[in-house]
């Protein structure tokens, strides 16, 4: 390979074409060396969570900014303020491999400030291939429930902890073995579904969560 590359070529035009920026004839005895640099970022390099700020959900700050400083694909981010920390519950959207064994799991990071910087995500709090996460505190504030869907559209699971930073454990539920089930989810509950409740049930929830 030559040390000096004296000309530039515009691909995909051939070297003989004027559009290539070279426009030279190449004979059978000529040799052409072509060098190009390119980004070898992983397939998920563009999958990032971004945010914009708004006081009225009508006008927003511009431009949107990247949410986290670390290099990882994320989706389904929910931020909850608990005590003096903001906890970001995220889905690690990388595909699981030996290089990324935490891919497609739910993980948690935290920050003293809403806009960060956030800590690096902790270990998985769910099995793999889970999404549509929903962290919910118990009415008395002593337990955290983290629901997530096993996709594509199979069932909902649940992890439980005393505090958002864990430790978390996976609960057993929605099972035919009723005396061992810790939770029940309607059979057809899926990502994005909504459960109707009546006014009495709504009042009970409001009273319990005050």
Which characteristics define this entry?
about 210 residues; mainly beta; 2 domains; 4-stranded antiparallel beta sheet; 3-stranded antiparallel beta sheet; about 5% helix; elongated
Write a brief structural summary.
With 210 residues, the chain is mainly beta. It has one helix at residues 199-209; strands at 50-51, 65-66, 74-82, 85-92, 106-111, 130-137, 144-150, 155-161, 169-170. The chain folds into two domains: 1-38, no CATH class; 50-209, no CATH class.
Topology:
Layout: E1 50-51, E2 65-66, E3 74-82, E4 85-92, E5 106-111, E6 130-137, E7 144-150, E8 155-161, E9 169-170, H1 199-209
Antiparallel strand pairs: 1-2, 3-4, 4-5, 6-7, 7-8, 8-9
Question: Can you walk me through this structure?
Answer:
- A hairpin with a 4-residue loop joins strand 7 and strand 8 (155-161).
- The mean pLDDT is 85.
- The chain folds into 2 domains: 1-38, no CATH class; 50-209, no CATH class.
- It has a 4-stranded antiparallel sheet with strand order 6-7-8-9, with no helix packed on it. Strands 3-4-5 form a 3-stranded antiparallel sheet, with no helix packed on it.
- The chain is built from 1 helix and 9 strands.
- 5% of the residues lie in helices and 24% in strands.
- By secondary structure, the chain is mainly β.
